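Try this one yourself first.
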């Protein structure tokens, strides 16, 4: 019985962290919701607030953790796409969920840096306010502060058809 319970928990955790398409949806325009504002520090202690971008830039948020193998792939992909996305007027903010600053900083150094803004949600308040169920999870926030996309997978092609204004 203990073996079956262990196997069930193991399968559940693998499914939860596997990047499965369990929360992948484009938000339909009439169902848009206002993105919860937040203030977080990056790994260097600089403060960032979502409201700083309102009316100026759309924002792509990616929630992630150091232990998630899919998050590593996602960070590298965002690093490769950063210039193109910024050229489209989209600010990239990556948010580590629930880990201490030293661990995240060491992880980023171990990757040779990622060239992205890495914010720390050590107490998970921000990820909770966004109802993050697993990682990686992406949100695209329009210039007006509305969530126009959320999901566990993201590609530049997802931007087509989204109202970023």
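Now uncover the answer:
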């Amino acid at each position: 019985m203990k073996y079956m319970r262990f196997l069930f928990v193991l399968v559940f955790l693998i499914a939860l962290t596997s990047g499965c398409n369990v929360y992948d949806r484009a938000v339909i325009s009439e169902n848009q919701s206002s993105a919860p504002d937040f203030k977080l520090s990056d790994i260097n202690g600089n403060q960032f607030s979502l409201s700083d971008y309102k009316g100026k830039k759309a924002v792509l948020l990616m929630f992630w953790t150091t232990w998630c193998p899919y998050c590593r792939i996602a960070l590298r992909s965002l690093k490769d796409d950063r210039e193109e996305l910024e050229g489209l007027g989209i600010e990239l903010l990556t948010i580590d969920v629930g880990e201490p600053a030293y661990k995240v900083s060491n992880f980023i150094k171990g990757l040779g840096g990622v060239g992205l803004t890495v914010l720390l949600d050590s107490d998970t308040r921000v990820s909770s306010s966004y109802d993050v169920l697993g990682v990686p999870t992406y949100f695209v926030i329009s210039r007006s502060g509305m969530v126009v996309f959320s999901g566990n997978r993201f590609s530049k092609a997802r931007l087509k058809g989204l109202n970023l204004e």
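Discussion: The CA atoms of residues 60 and 128 lie 17 Å apart. The mean pLDDT is 84.
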